Amino acid sequence: MSRFELTRIPFIKNTLKSRYPQLAVFIVMLVGYIFAILAGLIGTPVGSHNFSIVFVWIAWWAILILVAVPFFGRGWCAVCPIPLPGEWLQRGAVLSPPDKKPKWLNLRWPKFLRNIWMQNISFLLLALFSSVLLTTPNITGIVLAAMLFAAIGLSTIFERRAFCRYLCPVGGFIGLYSQTAPIELRIKDKQICVTCEGKPCYNGSANGYGCPWDVFPGGLTKNTYCGLCMECIRTCPHDNIAINLRPFSADLAKPSTRMDEAFKAFIMLGSAMIYAGVLLGPWGAFKDAAYNVGTSAWFIYAVIFLAIIFVILPGFFTLGILKTKGSLPLKQRFASLATALIPLGLMFWVAFSLSFVLTNASYIIAAFSDPLGLGWNLFGTANAVWQPMLTFVLAPAQTLALVGGLIWSARTAQKAANEIRTSSISVIAFSFILTLVMLWLLL
Q1: DSSP state, residue 183
Q2: pTM for this structure?
Q3: How far, in Å, CA of 144 to CA of 139, rounded?
Q4: Confidence of residue 324 (pLDDT cuts 50, 70, 90)
Q5: pLDDT of residue 443
Q6: What's the number of CA atoms in the CB half-sphere (13 Å) around residue 62?
Q7: Percent of the chain with pLDDT over 90
Q8: What is the number of domains present in the chain?
Q9: Residue 208: inside a domain, yes or no?
Q10: Which of 67, 79, 240, 265 gets the highest tally of CB atoms within 10 A of its CB?
């Protein structure tokens, strides 16, 4: 399948170039986000009846993992409300182009932190406390508020969207898995970008802002660091930027050589397996340890969690690579071959989320009528009885996702191995074993 330029369609192109449709979605999202914070702080402490828990960790999570990331990549980042207040404050405007003189410090992000290690750490912090976060509304409210204020604070100190690019725990894994999505933003003609004066797509112009993600579209080769904010489409004077429909996982044809991205793949892969064991497994002691934050049992759980992600999984992966021949250094082979774990990890999360979401989706119906758990019945559904949904399709759908992920991962491993002239057998065997483990955890 060749690429098809979606922005050739006048309606799509005009919608993306206009600020008003995106602004309307932004405002709705921001109102919902602020309501989720308030619901977490002042609503019922019963998580299954509180808007912050039900709509963030069930409804939003289902849309994100099952639809947005697999099919639209960074699409969520295009409408995410978290950076908005800070960005408006940074620019001194909501829609009109900013003044040339910065209104705040406008510092460059430190060079040694221009990677996704901070995002890896922030995701792990949330993951270690996830059992409490997923069930305690006030903790969810505090975390949501902290992310909003962090984005505002960083916008007054650093230029562009420093929070989104370097710190957001959600943005890190969306960027990783966006490489598999069939949507991309790319330039049409490289030579036009070479000769373009002023580079308004990066620096901004009277038509719009410079790239908030600190990316020059002319050098964009993968989705990982493009937030689909659409500013470059509005500022390009040559109409040289397009949104394309492409084959799935097109970015993975050329494997990454970055260790921060490689470990993000292990973090997401390991977290999905651990979550399946904690939230869906029958082991009461394991579940109690994860929920009793601050106890000795929880510290043991945290050590095991981190050991699986940083020692056990990468360790066995490395042992497999050591047995294969290759002219490149081990570090480069490790990072390149870890690319094969990206589709596997995505399908692990899809399989886990299907179980988690379908088991708890009926809570959405009740919380819709009584979002704060205060006895309201706005739409007559507040007393809806909890029951798992679509249980007859769950096991087949999870099996299909995991087997599909394994096949997808094996093909990606072969391509990555061919690129660096080594064998893919050990990576495929590693993926096969992990798939069997995930099947056992879920089914």
Answers
A1: E
A2: 0.95
A3: 9
A4: confident
A5: 86
A6: 15
A7: 89
A8: 1
A9: no
A10: 265
Residue 103 belongs to a domain: no
Residue 107 lies in a domain: no
Q: Tell me if 349 is assigned to some domain.
A: yes
Q: How confident is residue 377, by pLDDT bands cut at 50, 70 and 90?
A: very high
The model's pLDDT over 117-143, given as tens digits with 9 standing for 90+, comes to 999 999 999 999 998 999 999 999 999
pLDDT value, residue 1: 57
Q: What are 296's two structure tokens?
A: 């000795």
Query: What is the span of the domain harbouring residue 291?
Result: 268-442
- Residue that the structure tokens 């260790």 belong to: 259
pLDDT at 98: 66
**For the chain, what is the mean pLDDT?**
95
- Residue 155 tokens read as 């916008």
Q: What is the 3-state secondary structure (H, E, C) of the chain?
A: CCCEEHHHCHHHHHHHHCCHHHHHHHHHHHHHHHHHHHHHHHCCCCHHHCHHHHHHHHHHHHHHHHHHHHHHHHHHCCCCCCCHHHHHHHHCCCCCCCCCCCCCCCECCCHHHCCCHHHHHHHHHHHHCHHHHCCCHHHHHHHHHHHHHHHHHHHHHECCCHHHHHCCHHHHHHHHHHHHCCEEEEECCHHHHHHCCCCHHHHEECCEECCCCCCCHHHCCCCCCCCCCCHHHHHCCCCCEEEEECCCCHHHHCCCCCHHHHHHHHHHHHHHHHHHHHHHCCCHHHHHHHHCCCCHHHHHHHHHHHHHHHHHHHHHHHHHHHCCCCCCCHHHHHHHHHHHHHHHHHHHHHHHHHHHHHHHCHHHHHHHHCCCCCCCCCCCCCCCCCCCCCHHHHHHHHHHHHHHHHHHHHHHHHHHHHHHCCCCHHHHHHHHHHHHHHHHHHC
Average pLDDT over residues 336-350: 98
Residues 47, 141 contacting (CB under 8 angstroms): no
Range list of H helices, 214-312: 231-235, 259-275, 284-291, 296-307
